[in-house]
Design goal:
There is one protein chain. The chain is mainly α. 60% of the residues lie in helices and 8% in strands. It contains six helices and three strands, in the order ββααααβαα. It has helices at 17-39, 45-50, 63-68, 82-113, 125-146, 163-184; strands at residues 5-7, 10-15, 119-124. It has a three-stranded antiparallel beta sheet with strand order 1-2-3. A hairpin with a 2-residue loop joins β1 (5-7) and β2 (10-15). The longest helix has 32 residues, at 82-113. It is globular and about 50 Å long. 21% of the residues are buried.
């Protein structure tokens, strides 16, 4: 891939077939995880009548989903107050459906605009913002799966099973950084 560029109100990029497959595959995986989480929402007849949806009231067990859908209220990890736990659960139940919609929506934009066989990508500024958000979600998920730390070296030993995936993580970082630069210019 070459750096993203901006021409007027359009942001342009080009992906080869393999790069497009990586982006599409990872974004699809995140979208699937988020859709599965949305299906865990309780079915509520009142919500159907009022249009007010509620989501699960407890945080996801999966560490990747936990990173993508953090608590809306931080609890004292040493001694959580039961009232605070109830409040945090209520906030999650109210706000998580909207966050899931947002995250699956930006993933859909990437899947709609990234050509499956590679090629040029032309994005309106709003679509570029969606790409930034979706790429961030992929990087958060991949970083969590790889246990990326600040002091982690740029390369891992070849026998480390995370080594090839860390290369993808760094490439996605570069794709996101050049997209930010293009959007800001």
């Amino acid at each position: 891939m070459k750096k993203w560029t901006r021409t007027g109100d359009q942001v342009l990029g080009r992906f080869d077939r393999q790069e497009a497959a990586v982006v599409r595959g990872l974004v699809s995986q995140i979208q699937d995880m988020l859709a599965a989480r949305a299906e865990e929402a309780p079915q509520d007849e009142l919500a159907e009548l009022t249009g007010i949806r509620t989501g699960p009231s407890t945080p996801p067990d999966d560490p990747i989903l936990g990173r993508l859908l953090p608590d809306f209220h931080r609890l004292d990890p040493d001694a959580p107050d039961p009232a605070e736990v109830d409040s945090a659960n209520a906030l999650r139940s109210l706000h998580e459906p909207e966050l899931l919609d947002l995250k699956t929506g930006v993933a859909a934009v990437v899947l709609q605009t990234c050509p499956p066989d590679g090629g040029e990508v032309r994005l309106a500024l709003e679509q570029a913002e969606a790409w930034l958000s979706a790429l961030n979600d992929v990087r958060l998920a991949l970083g969590t799966a790889l246990d990326v730390q600040e002091d982690m070296p740029d390369e891992l030993p070849p026998d480390d099973p995370r080594s090839p995936h860390l290369g993808v993580y760094h490439w996605l970082t570069w794709v996101q950084e050049t997209l930010v630069e293009a959007v800001m210019n």
